From TrEMBL:
It holds the Pfam family DUF2334. This is Deacetylase. CDD domains: CE4_u10. It comes from Sphingobium xenophagum. InterPro entries: DUF2334 (IPR018763), Glyco_hydro/deAcase_b/a-brl (IPR011330).
């Protein structure tokens, strides 16, 4: 698509599933209008919090396939997204302050992490009719079990807050913080909007910029405005790209 030295903008919509269909529709419209293409990613949750299963042949599954065929990359984004493990120490701090019980893969054993990864991959690939782009853990949080399972998986790409890497080799193919937003509280919203504004000033030297949005973002006009401003800022100097292009 582009030379290996060119700069890219990787945008993604998280928590894609039937429980957030209206929110995802709005975010798809925002992405498409701002980027003027469908080169972005969707992170698909097979059964969000055990309440919103995606079933093959359902209307939502058909929409996923259509989005995939339009050029949108499809990632497996956990299975439930919900974290029910009791954490202690550093993990406890991450589970409490970095996410609201959403870090599903932070405390899973190797076998359980591997099973959920494989079940998610099989479901998504059956629905879209092609290979999933990769795996990204909910809240970008990985415990040792998830990391070991990724090492043995067939996923081409994984991502956390600070990097994108190839699971089987550990090779890092992009570095830099994800620009994302938080709507859980007024303080978190203000800090995320402020970080996005700062990012627009200081992150331009990075070869790859990553922007991630969530269904809850549409609940606040200040976040939607910040998302639009951020995407337009980076789209001026770089192309909307694909995660797969990082492997070339």
């Amino acid at each position: 698509m582009r030379g290996s030295d060119s700069r890219a903008l990787l945008a993604s919509i998280h928590d894609v599933g039937p429980g957030f269909e209206k929110e995802v529709d709005r975010l798809v419209g925002l992405m498409t209008d701002t980027l003027r293409c469908s080169r972005f990613a969707m992170l698909v949750v097979p059964n969000h919090w055990g309440c919103h299963p995606i079933r093959s042949g359902s209307p939502f599954a058909n929409r996923l396939r259509a989005w995939s065929e339009s050029g949108i990359e499809m990632f497996v984004h956990g299975w439930y997204h919900k974290d029910i493990v009791e954490h202690h120490g550093i993990k406890g701090l991450k589970a409490r302050y970095m996410t609201a019980r959403e870090g599903e893969f932070l405390g899973l054993s190797y076998s359980e992490a591997a099973r959920r990864m494989e079940d998610g991959r099989a479901l998504v690939e059956d629905i879209i009719g092609r290979k999933a782009a990769g795996f990204i853990a909910p809240a970008w949080l990985y415990g040792w079990g998830a990391m070991e399972a990724l090492l043995d998986s067939s996923f081409d790409i994984a991502e956390d807050h600070m990097k994108v890497w190839i699971p089987q080799t550990g090779k890092v193919v992009a570095r830099g913080p994800v620009i994302t937003w938080a709507s859980r509280s007024t303080a978190r919203t203000a800090s995320s909007v402020a970080f996005a504004a700062l990012a627009c000033k200081v992150l331009h030297p990075l070869r790859t910029i990553r922007v991630a949005v969530h269904p809850s973002d549409i609940s606040k006009d200040s976040i939607l405005s910040s998302i639009d401003t951020t995407l337009r800022c980076f789209a001026k100097s770089r192309q909307a790209g694909s995660y797969q292009s990082l492997l070339k």
